[in-house]
């Protein structure tokens, strides 16, 4: 049932939810799983990392931080959005990729046992989702620059052939919401034993 809810999140986030509501849903899901499965150090630290970056993203956009002037070109307004998302998604990927190392260092400083800290299947699933996020962000950023080459000093006769490059621009929100739904699904999968198991490179290579 919970996985069906994660899949239903995708169309609802595209057609009904605003960006703030989507972030609140994911924050509540992450916090709930982190509390319920707090005995598992891997789950606890994964949820902490995810909650931190989503909370940061929520505050940046809700309070319009790092804003550009109201009279700024749409080129720069859009690039602000894409670059903030890109920074947050790269940060998310790095935090999850190095989560086992960070977890061991944190526990070692507190004098606690670190043998239970492993790279789980959930870590790998989330890293895959974040790579997709990064790809979409980069494509949107690059397309925005190419579509507005004339504002960057390129000859208009050459630049105008790219004015119609807007597929990612018009589908950016939908693609991000789909990936957010996949992230929510990956988070919910943490509740399964398979997701919490140690990721084996040998098994992955077979």
How are the SSEs ordered, and which strands pair?
Layout (H helix, E strand, L loop, with lengths): L1 H14 L3 H18 L4 H22 L11 H24 L1 H11 L11 H27 L8 H4 L7 H23 L3 H4 L4 H5 L1
Structure notes:
By secondary structure, the protein is mainly alpha-helical. It contains ten helices and no strands. It has helices spanning 2-15, 19-36, 41-62, 74-97, 99-109, 121-147, 156-159, 167-189, 193-196, 201-205. α1 runs antiparallel to α8 (167-189), α3 packs antiparallel against α4 and α4 (74-97) packs antiparallel against α6 (121-147). The longest helix is centred in the middle third of the chain and has 27 residues, at 121-147. 29% of the residues are buried. The model has no long low-confidence stretch (mean pLDDT 87).
């Amino acid at each position: 049932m919970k996985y069906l809810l994660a899949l239903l999140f995708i169309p609802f986030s595209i057609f009904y939810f605003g960006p703030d509501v989507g972030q609140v849903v994911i924050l509540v899901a992450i916090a709930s799983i982190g509390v319920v499965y707090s005995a598992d150090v891997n789950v606890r630290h994964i949820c902490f990392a995810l909650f931190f970056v989503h909370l940061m993203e929520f505050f940046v956009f809700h309070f319009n931080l790092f804003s550009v002037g109201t009279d700024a070109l749409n080129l720069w307004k859009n690039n602000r959005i894409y670059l903030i998302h890109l920074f947050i998604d790269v940060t998310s990927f790095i935090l999850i990729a190095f989560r086992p190392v960070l977890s061991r260092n944190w526990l070692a400083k507190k004098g606690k046992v670190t043998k239970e800290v492993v790279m789980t299947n959930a870590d790998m699933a989330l890293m895959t989702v974040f790579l997709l996020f990064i790809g979409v962000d980069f494509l949107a950023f690059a397309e925005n620059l190419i579509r507005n080459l004339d504002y960057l000093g390129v000859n208009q006769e050459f630049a105008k052939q790219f004015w119609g490059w807007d597929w990612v621009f018009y589908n950016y929100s939908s693609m991000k919401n789909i990936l957010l739904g996949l992230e929510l699904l990956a988070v919910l999968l943490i509740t399964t034993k398979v997701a919490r198991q140690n990721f084996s490179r040998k098994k992955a290579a077979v």
